[in-house]
Backbone:
């Protein structure tokens, strides 16, 4: 599959970096990505990033950076978020929250959102002691010829 | 006796960094005997699950006090967040401030 566009960003592990992440994501927007897909991926990216800050990096210094990669392929968006946190079983976490979700609790919604939005979701331990959250979203590319 | 209405207007991104302040504002409204609390999202550009979590906890607080929490003017990304989490069925959401005020003035709330 051809990669049409790919960007990288490294930000300090701080919720205040969210602004920067959103601005960065804005830049990859293009007419071939359906609006709904773009909005869903924006939310998935935010949830993945804030999870990394609040959970994976909870006990780490804020200057440990979180790395983000956004790849636009033909009919597919791939978001990758690398953190320095301890190993974590995302699948078990998703199953826990999907079973036990009750409407008036304050938390646990982030992973459910990721699970609902992503066509493929994985959280993998790497050789460099980082974890990589991969979010894949497939879509039918909008016909660009209309705009020409 | 007139109905006590309070309006909260958060600004910018409603996320984990603003959640505590938001809940304090809601609690202050409840303590000041508000019967109807409107959260006007006109100036909120984005909300994540932490912001939504604060909103859900606020709803519990407000209902426990016998009051009402209503929302208005949410944008497209926030609408999507509500739908994804089925929270659009839990909250009363008005398209805009005018429609809220119309209902309020007609005693339909």
Residues:
């Amino acid at each position: 599959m051809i990669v049409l566009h790919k960007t990288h960003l490294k930000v300090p592990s701080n919720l205040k970096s969210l602004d920067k992440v959103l601005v960065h994501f804005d830049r990859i927007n293009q007419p071939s990505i359906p609006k709904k897909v773009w909005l869903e991926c924006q939310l998935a990216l935010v949830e993945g990033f804030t999870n990394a800050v609040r959970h994976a990096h909870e006990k780490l210094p804020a200057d440990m950076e979180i790395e983000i990669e956004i790849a636009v392929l033909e009919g597919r968006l791939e978001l990758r978020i690398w953190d320095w946190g301890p190993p974590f079983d995302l699948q078990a976490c998703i199953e826990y929250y999907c079973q036990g979700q009750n409407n008036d609790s304050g938390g646990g919604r982030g992973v459910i959102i990721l699970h609902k939005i992503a066509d493929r979701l994985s959280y993998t331990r790497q050789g460099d002691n980082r974890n990589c959250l991969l979010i894949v979203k497939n879509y039918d590319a909008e016909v660009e010829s209309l705009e020409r | 006796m007139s109905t006590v209405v309070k309006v909260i207007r958060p600004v910018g991104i409603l996320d984990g960094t603003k959640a505590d302040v938001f809940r304090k504002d809601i609690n202050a409204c409840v303590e000041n005997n508000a019967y109807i609390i409107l959260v006007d999202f006109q100036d909120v550009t984005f909300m994540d699950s932490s912001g939504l979590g604060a909103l859900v906890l606020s709803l519990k607080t407000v209902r426990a006090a016998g009051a009402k929490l209503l929302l208005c003017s949410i944008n497209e990304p926030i609408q999507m967040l509500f739908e994804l989490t089925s929270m659009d069925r839990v909250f009363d959401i008005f398209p805009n401030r005018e429609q809220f005020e119309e209902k309020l003035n007609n005693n339909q709330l």
Q: What stands out?
A: Residues 23 and 58 of chain B are 6 Å apart (CA to CA). The longest helix of chain B spans residues 49-64. Chain B touches chain A at residues 13, 15-17, 46, 48-50, 52-54, 56-57, 59-60, 76-77, 80-81, 84-87, 90 (CB under 8 Å).
